[in-house]
Amino acid sequence: MTGPVPHHPDLAAGRWGRLSLAAQLANVGSEVGRMLRWRGRDEGLAARAFERALELLDLTLADPRWRGRLREIARARELLCDAATGGHDYDCTLEELDRYFLAFAVAERCRR
């Protein structure tokens, strides 16, 4: 039995492991931004952006370089799931997560 087809097959094939943590989380943030952009306008596109964000977070969690950061990354995944379903457990919004992930995009941009 095979698993689901990844949304990012080139990243899942190993390219993800060559990105910095900031770059990985910035890419997650891009999907969160897409979720926000499509929320209320096209729920199908918003849902697919959510699936891609989860896939990228799962790839980040699987990256052995971040073994010491797993709690933080897993919490970000948990908060994303909560925010996507209304923020009832943690009172977290997609807008707050968008700002959180934006900081990684800025850090990655400054690094280059």
Could you explain the architecture of this structure?
With about 110 residues, this protein is mainly α. Helix content is about 65%, strand content about 0%. The chain has 5 helices and no strands. Helix 2 packs antiparallel against helix 3 and helix 2 runs antiparallel to helix 5. The protein is globular, with a radius of gyration of 14 Å. It starts with 8 loop residues before the first helix and ends with a helix.
Weakly predicted, low-confidence segments: none
- Measured by DSSP, the beta-strand proportion falls in under 5%
SSE succession: HHHHH
Name the overall outline. Answer: globular
Distance between the termini: 42 Å
* Share in helix: 55-70%
* Category by helix and strand content: mainly alpha
Mean pLDDT: 91
Largest sheet: none
What's the short version?
This protein has about 110 residues and is mainly α. The protein has helices at about 10, 20-40, 45-60, 70-85, 95-110.
Element layout with pairings:
Layout: H1 9-12, H2 21-38, H3 43-62, H4 70-84, H5 94-111
Properties at a glance:
0% strand; 112 residues; mainly alpha
